[in-house]
Amino acid sequence: GVAMIGAGFLWQVGAVMLAYGLLGLLLVVTYTGWLTRRPWLCLLAPGVGFGILMVAGAYQALTGMLSLTALVLSLVPALLVSALLLINQLPDIEPDRRVGRDHLAIRLGARRAARLAAALMLAAFAVIPLAWLVGALPAGTWLMWLSAPAAVWLARGLWYLPSAVERGDLAPLLPLMGLKVVVLLGSLILLNAGLFLAG
Q1: 11-20, 123-132, 143-152, 170-179: which range is least confident on average?
Q2: pLDDT, position 2
Q3: Which residue has the higher pLDDT, 188 or 6?
Q4: What span, in angstroms and rounded, lies between the C-alpha atoms of 116 and 83?
Q5: Percent of the chain at pLDDT exceeding 90
Q6: Bigger pLDDT: 21 or 143?
Q7: How far apart are the C-alpha atoms of 185 and 80, rounded to whole Å?
Q8: Would you say the C-alpha torsion 72, 75, 77, 80 has a positive or negative sign?
Q9: Structural contact between residues 183 and 121, judged by C-beta atoms closer than 8 angstroms
Q10: Phi/psi at 28 (nearest 5 deg)?
Q11: Average pLDDT over every residue of 68-88
Q12: Is 161 left (phi over 0), alpha (psi -120 to 50) or beta?
């Protein structure tokens, strides 16, 4: 079924769709055994897959072309997903270290990695006004900013994690992990609603 859909897009749009598929397949195949041992690639790979490849690829599959708007929009889930991955790696620092993984949560430690995750998340929100100012996004995308208070609250919690987290005390982190999922899903729902309203 999936292969047939892919073949249909390949037939209608052209060989560029094969590039999306092969790059996505490469990310999946190399993630566990190779990418998780390269800190920056491990951070960026999920964002590239769930953000840039999915958003830009879907847009090009449906329209037959790629636009600046689609590329800019793909940065929002890319940054949010990479932040989510980094937060989710924090409780697994020691187990991951023991099995030979080498991601940024291991390299930076829990508190510094949490601050990087906070910065990535806020950068996703910064995409909207910056892209709107240069005419790359419609005004409706500002609807995503309705979730900004929750994002700022989450970023503050991540930025000021207590030092006990470095010693394996996950209690301060767990509610933030749940809130991060809510912020990601809520902000993307609002972003899509804003695009729909903008026509």
Answers
A1: 11-20
A2: 66
A3: 188
A4: 8
A5: 81
A6: 143
A7: 9
A8: negative
A9: yes
A10: -65, -45
A11: 97
A12: beta
Contact 70, 31 (CB under 8 A): no
First and final C-alpha spacing in the chain: 31
What whole-number distance in Å separates Cα of residue 54 and Cα of residue 34?
22
CA distances from 36 to 87, 118, 181 (A): 15, 21, 22
Q: Check residues 15 and 136 and name the one with the higher pLDDT.
A: 136
Which residues lie closer than 8 Å to 7 by C-beta, 6 or more apart? none
Other CB atoms within a 10 A radius of the CB of residue 162 amount to 12
Give the separation between CA 184 and CA 67, rounded to whole angstroms: 24
Residue with tokens 């989450």: 154
Query: Token match 């937060």: residue?
Result: 87
Q: Of all helices (H) and strands (E), which one includes residue 163? A: none
Greatest alpha-carbon span in the chain: 56
For residues 27 and 24, give the distance between their C-alpha atoms in angstroms, rounded to a whole number.
5
Structure token digits, residue 130: 């910056």
| Overall pTM surpassing 0.90 (yes/no) | yes
156, with CB counted inside 10 A (0-12, 13-18, 19+), is exposed
* Token code pair at residue 20: 């999306």
Matching residue, tokens 């929100």: 125
pLDDT greater than 80 at residue 73: yes
Helix (H) or strand (E) holding 64: none
